[in-house]
Amino acid sequence: MPLTFDDLLTRARSLVRDGHRAVLGIAGSPGAGKSTLAEQLVRALNGAGEPWVAHVPMDGFHLADAELARLGRLDRKGAPDTFDAAGYAALLRRLREEYAADGDGETVYAPGFERVLEQPLAGAIPVPPTARLVVTEGNYLLLGTGAWARVRPQLDEVWFCDLDDGERIRRLVARHEEFGKDHAAAVAWVLGTDQRNADLVAATRAHADLLVPATAVPPGSAAAG
Ligand SMILES: Nc1ncnc2c1ncn2[C@@H]1O[C@H](COP(=O)(O)OP(=O)(O)OP(=O)(O)O)[C@@H](O)[C@H]1O
Ligand SMILES: [Mg+2]
Fold first, then answer.
1. Which of UniProt's keywords are assigned here (predicted)?
2. d(Cα 202, Cα 162) in Å, to the nearest integer?
């Protein structure tokens, strides 16, 4: 039986146990559908009631352009060493540790990524004390190098968005065009900078707890980051 979206909802719910805040990671190559899957899960699990699931993207830990310029890394924005990996791991740890079963803990603020400015934005994502499950998603959750190795121990499970490269590249080019690049520039970016990062991510696929085929995910809004 192919994996369905309902199977994913059941599995995500099963991670949540008494007295503990669960953190589910979603990894995958650029454009593989991580943000869409996370948004769909959070929306379906929260339903119309009091939100108990929060979405915290790894993207908020992009270093700012000014710092990338200082480090001489602006031309490879998106590579593993252009993020604050240690800060991300520390936030995940804090999210787990500060959960209080009586809902009396404090709101934890995560940074977001502002798509128009293409810069991180502190304090953009509130995780309320009532959040029992955090869904976090990004390229490098399963990377074993440097401070990235501190991320996996903070996650209950990591799922991997499994999308064939042809379709993944087609979607990614379309999204870059949507955000203002012309076709040639979009293709050059996707096959250059993005592809080097995609290869690094693809090498971590075997470490995932679950491979999620694109067929299990209902299409999301084009606003997914
Ligand atoms: N099931 C789907 N069917 C069709 N298009 C989809 C589907 N899921 C996602 N997309 C589209 O594919 C593109 C990439 O999806 P998404 O932004 O979720 O990927 P991502 O892995 O978060 O990418 P990034 O690594 O750049 O953050 C988006 O334009 C999105 O609308
Ligand atoms: Mg995304």
1. Kinase, Transferase
2. 9
Q: Give the whole-angstrom CA distance, residue 8 versus residue 15.
A: 11
Domain ranges of the chain: 5-216
105 has pLDDT over 70: yes
Q: Strands, DSSP E only, in 28-100?
A: 53-57
Residue 107 has pLDDT above 50, yes or no: yes
Pocket lining for ligand 1, CB < 6 angstroms:
28, 30-36, 139, 171, 175, 214, 217, 219-220, 222, 224-225
Distance 168 CA to ligand 1 centre (A): 8
d(CA 43, CA 45): 6
CATH number of 5-216: 3.40.50.300
* pLDDT averaged over every residue in the chain: 94
pLDDT value, residue 222: 47
Tokens of 199: 């290869």
Question: Which among 123, 148, 163, 191 has a CA at the least distance from the CA of 37?
Answer: 163
